[in-house]
Amino acid sequence: MLKFIMKHYSPNSQGEIFRLYILVGDDRFHVAINGHPYCTYGFRGPLADIRTIRIDKDIQQIVQVDHRQAYPAPFPAIQLEETFNTFSNDVPKQFLPGHVIIMTAIPFGNPRGGFIIRFNENGTKKQALHLNPRFDPHYVVVRNSHTDTLDFRRDEERSGGFPFVLDQQFKLAIALTESEFKFAVNGSVFESYAYRNANLLNVLNGFKVQCSNGMQLEITNVDHMNMGVPDCEGFESYSHPEVEIF
């Protein structure tokens, strides 16, 4: 593991929101804070050894962990700044069948609220997946997507029960196959949602989270991995609370 420790004077005051950028150069990391150059840090080992980004210490909330390819061409090509998002997680290359996203989070706040996990197409407002767990009084997980006119489809899906509990941590795995999204919560398979467009994985950049009606979602961990099998058979095991991703 490569540890990156910042010992320079911090340009931020306690309690302020800040944005940290880390650009991977030829032989060093280039760091900027709030759009201004801050420092550089030379590589201490092979970049191939880096598997995770860990953020800890005196941070109250993390709302964005986006990865972008800067060279030879930006990817995602468009990066929207949406202040209403609770969390954002873009990825620097296209998804392939067999990819699994594992999210660990805790819902809290107003029991009559909910949260939304969105996969948008190419940084636009068109949602390829709208996953919306709604708590009291509905206790239903709505799955839907946008038409070309950005309207939600009439045939939204609500089956599968409700695997989430307020104030209790959950582990959600979202598997991307050749034809559908698959979901698992805490080690058990929970429904799926078929792609509504062909070649959908070519236009997905990552996911966003949005909360509603006083609900809050504290996301503590996000892992990405490719299982090497397009149908993601057995992916639910990665959502088990005791399984660690390496």
From TrEMBL:
<dbReference type="Pfam" id="PF00337">
    <property type="entry name" value="Gal-bind_lectin"/>
</dbReference>
<protein>
    <recommendedName>
        <fullName>Galectin</fullName>
    </recommendedName>
</protein>
<keyword id="KW-0430">Lectin</keyword>
<feature type="domain" description="Galectin">
    <location>
        <begin position="87"/>
        <end position="225"/>
    </location>
</feature>
<dbReference type="InterPro" id="IPR001079">
    <property type="entry name" value="Galectin_CRD"/>
</dbReference>
<dbReference type="GO" id="GO:0030246">
    <property type="term" value="F:carbohydrate binding"/>
</dbReference>
<dbReference type="InterPro" id="IPR044156">
    <property type="entry name" value="Galectin-like"/>
</dbReference>
<feature type="domain" description="Galectin">
    <location>
        <begin position="1"/>
        <end position="68"/>
    </location>
</feature>
<dbReference type="InterPro" id="IPR013320">
    <property type="entry name" value="ConA-like_dom_sf"/>
</dbReference>
